[in-house]
Amino acid sequence: MSAAALEISGLQAWYGESHVLHGVDMTVQHGEVVTLLGRNGAGRTSTMRAILGLTGSRKGSIRINGVETIHMPTHRIAHLGVGYCPEERGIFASLSTEENLMLPPVLKGMGQGMSVAEIYEMFPNLAERRASPGTRLSGGEQQMLAVARILRTGAKLLLLDEISEGLAPVIVQALARTIQTLRAKGYTIVMVEQNFRFAAPLADRFYVMEHGRMVEAFSAKELDAKMPVLNELLGV
Question: N or C end: fewer C-beta atoms under 10 angstroms in the chain?
Fold first, then answer.
């Protein structure tokens, strides 16, 4: 049996003196969509950042495709095929849509990422706005661009942080269709989401975080039975 796309065991992380993760355990199989649920400050974004080595310090085990990465620098972790879409999106205002799209390099050894033509087919809004400066894009278009940018690199493990936040329902629906398409293409996706209605129909499995720890883990088929617990933990 091949190694999981992502295996986390006993993960602890700090920002300076602040201890933010307290022994996180999590497994994501190839081709899965997994959602991290939890209230603000529960440790979900810190988990995403710790996977890429973006916290101040960390210990435990993080294996990506079977490779231990806990002592690797961020750039080496990314070259294992990891793409991170942070909540703040990171669009450069002075660059056009297409310049933003072309900015990150293709990851060596990962095979071809999506071509620009494939990306524009998936995100037709970006094709129409390819010459527009980043500042002229709507919030939804910026979010599409942030996702599209990592698809071009060849990354196959996608870490998506609150991609539906603050967006119009029509854009949220378009992003949901994008995630379904990517799963069908074999991508592995870990999402942090506050929008439960967006995440619920997309995810194969769910983890719930509280105070820097995983407190629940269950599959999509268990979701209905877990709703009382989720109401208590999240107020959904």
Answer: N
Distance CA 26, CA 100 (A): 32
> What is d(CA 232, CA 210) in angstroms, rounded to the nearest whole number?
12
Considering the chain, what is the average pLDDT of its residues? 92
The count of structural domains within the chain is 1
Amino acid at 132: S
Owning domain of residue 139 = 6-234
Identify the bridge partners of residue 189 per DSSP, sorted by sequence position.
Answer: 33, 158
83 DSSP assignment: E
CB 122 within 8 A of CB 145: no
Question: 14: burial class by Cβ within 10 Å (0-12, 13-18, 19+)?
Answer: middle
What single letter denotes the amino acid at residue 164? S
State which H helix or E strand residue 169 sits in. helix 169-184
The Cα 160–Cα 141 span in angstroms is 15
CATH classification of the domain holding 56: 3.40.50.300
Query: Is this structure's pTM higher than 0.70?
Result: yes
Model confidence pLDDT, tens digit, residues 6-44: 999 999 999 888 999 999 999 999 999 999 999 889 999
